[in-house]
Amino acid sequence: MNVPIYQQALGQDFDRLQPQLQDYFSLVPGSGQYGVGEGVFDVVGCRQRWLRPLFRLTSSEEAFFPEYGEGIPFRIENHAHLDPFGRSSLTARREIRFPSRTRIFQDTTSVEQGEGVPRLVDYVGRYRRVVTDLNLSVTAEGRLRGISDASRLFLGPLRLPLPPSLDARAYAEQWWDASEGAHGKHRIQVKVIQPQIGLVLVYAGSFDYRLRPYSGGSSALSFLPRYAQPDRWERRT
Questions:
Q1: HEC letters along the chain
Q2: ∠ CA 21-126-94 to the nearest 5 degrees?
Q3: What's residue 54's pLDDT?
Q4: Cα distance between residue 84 and residue 87, in whole Å
């Protein structure tokens, strides 16, 4: 059964999401469509100046970046597909258009069957070297909340769980704001917090979202445009 991965993870709680969020998270492999969001981040990036040189060193990973700005345009594409290992997945590719340069931030969220219970794992960056568990919930207002947990780092054959003292957690919330613009917009807020440092990355803003057909009309379950594919896939969790 081709069920959206967020619906698999949330179960009956998926029906409690705002209708616009249900639409947003309903992409499935083989639909022949992908999602496109365009909007503006009110704030995005690393506020702590002393951390930016470190993020500059790791910016080629396409997971963190040293810039910080306000009123920054961005574009996101969502692609539902089967990954090379047969897992139902959703790959997101974000273009964040700072005045000095455009940064890419990408990840793939895949569904795993753990003891018969679906769970989501998120592979982050160009090489998918970092993976975290995603814990989801739905608020009373129908917003989606997600917390990343228990990060692991893959370096060649090594699987290195990050201890809580070093791990950074992402706290995300997404919702539909009917008062935004003429017809309403999607809103998202994400904060990445490291217990020893505090806030290391933030992005928050609003965007419009629509579905588009793939060029050529591909409906293969494993189809993912080449430009949205990572340089490396990771099967381990």
A1: CCCCHHHHHHHHHHHHCCHHHHHHCCCCCCCCEEEEEEEEEEEEECCCHHHHHHHHHCHHHCCCCCCEEEEEEEEEEEEEEECCCCCEEEEEEEEEECCCCEEEEEEEEEEEEECCEEEEEEEECCCCCEEEEEEEEECCCCCEEEEEEEEEEEECCEEEECCCCCCCEEEEEEEEECCCCCCCEEEEEEEEEECCCEEEEEEEEEEEEEEEECCCCCCCCCCCCHHHCCCCCCCCC
A2: 35
A3: 87
A4: 8
How far apart (Å, rounded) are the C-alpha atoms in residues 109 and 90?
5
pLDDT digits (tens, 9 = 90+) for 152-203: 999 999 999 998 888 899 999 999 999 988 899 999 999 999 988 999 999 9
Residue 128 main-chain phi, psi, to 5 deg: 55, 40
Ranking 30-34, 112-116, 157-161 by mean pLDDT, the lowest is 112-116
d(CA 195, CA 166): 7
Q: Give the C-alpha separation, 132 to 139, whole Å.
A: 22
Residue linked to tokens 């992908």: 34
Cα 60 from chain centroid (whole Å): 18
Task: Please tell me the distance from the alpha carbon of residue 132 to that of residue 151, in angstroms, as a whole number.
Answer: 4
> What tens digit of pLDDT does each residue of 115-136 get?
778 999 999 999 999 999 999 9
Residue 146: phi and psi, rounded to 5, are -140, 140
**β partners of residue 92:** 78, 107
Mean pLDDT calculated for residue range 10-23:
98
